[in-house]
Amino acid sequence: MKTDNEPISITVEYFAQLRACAKKKEETHNLEQGDLSALYARLKSQYHFPLERHSVHVAVNDEFASWDTVLRSGDRVVFIPPVSGG
Amino acid sequence: MKTDNEPISITVEYFAQLRACAKKKEETHNLEQGDLSALYARLKSQYHFPLERHSVHVAVNDEFASWDTVLRSGDRVVFIPPVSGG
Amino acid sequence: MSIFQITRDPIDLASLRSTLLDSGSGGFVSFEGWIRNRHNGREVLRLEYEAYDKLALTEGSRILAELRNQFGLSGIACIHRVGLLEVGEVAVCVAAAAEHRRECFEAVSLAMSSIKRRVPIWKHEFYADGGDAWVQCDHDH
Amino acid sequence: MSIFQITRDPIDLASLRSTLLDSGSGGFVSFEGWIRNRHNGREVLRLEYEAYDKLALTEGSRILAELRNQFGLSGIACIHRVGLLEVGEVAVCVAAAAEHRRECFEAVSLAMSSIKRRVPIWKHEFYADGGDAWVQCDHDH
What we know:
Chain A is of the alpha+beta class. Chain A is built from two helices and five strands; from the N terminus they run βαβαβββ. Chain C has helices spanning about 15-20, 55-70, 100-120, and strands at about 1-5, 25-35, 40, 40-50, 75-80, 85, 90-100, 120-125, 130-135. In chain C, strands 3, 4, 6, 8 and 9 form a five-stranded antiparallel sheet that branches. In chain C, strands 1-5-7-2 form a four-stranded mixed sheet. In chain C, helix 2 runs antiparallel to helix 3 (about 100-120). Chains in contact: A-D, B-C, C-D. Strand 2 of chain C pairs antiparallel with strand 2 of chain D.
């Protein structure tokens, strides 16, 4: 059984302007356990995302999730910038 | 020049349930001068129209008219039962 | 552009739509009135619509022109069919295009209310039980 | 019946409509979103729509199923196009059928508002002046 400090591996997929900033469609991250807001803060800093967290939604494994969701190894995360369909 | 008592000739055209009651599409009437409400009262009595005047509209020469419009010779009158298009 | 038409033939929906195409418009709303198989609990076999053509065209055109101005539509059009119609056929189509969608929804919805209230067209329903009736729409479906 | 679809091909409007045909329905409303030649005063050359397909389908289907129940529709369907679109092309179509027309207007209008707010689809606009932008629709057109 994993301990709380064991690193996990997750996949992040990017869309729209976040993909343009990250310059990639998806990538795998190995990181300490933490929640979605910590992950977004890290990536925002790394890729200079122009969007504050409050204007972004997030999905884990293809369902909307709350920012305090704790990540588990194997999770697939998508940050959702303001949508503009229709 | 006509006097006020000279008889006039008008055409009446029937639609929907009024045509069904009158059993005709149109007819010519020679009558004393009078307004549209007098004409409707006369035809309602003659053909047993089931519609009171307040639920009927009327047009003269292809435009809506008010019931106190006085008829002139040559006028073409259409009584308009409750409409149900659409 | 606003056009009100009456036809005895099946309504050409594609042609109605194409008259409204406009590269400055981002929204298009179309309403179709279909002949239902039931009315007030009775099974409907077919309907006959009849119009006082001349005044119907005048009044219908007036309604559409008013709405076009009121909502700044790029266009609005209506075709109403008359004569014998079977269940499932299209009795009327109203469509509008505008910069944004809200005006289209409002205008088409109001057009239908006004047409049903003001345009001299009548519906004669024939039922499976052998009866028939001149429909009186006092309320607004 | 409620169906939400995403396609890379031109939207087949006639086929969308035919999935909703229903002899118990008297009203049918269809909305189309067209690519406009201008946005915020800039001349638009073309757009690229991109979708997070899996969640877009889940969320879109959820929206339509909710509206179908809420308004007792006989059916509601939506097709959203993604990929490169030119001015004048149809980006999205939502259509609904019901016994009476009011439910159709309400449902299609609400469907569009919810889709624009909740479904993960993004619009990338390319302008005649050489610029481009990811559109952010915070307000509701």
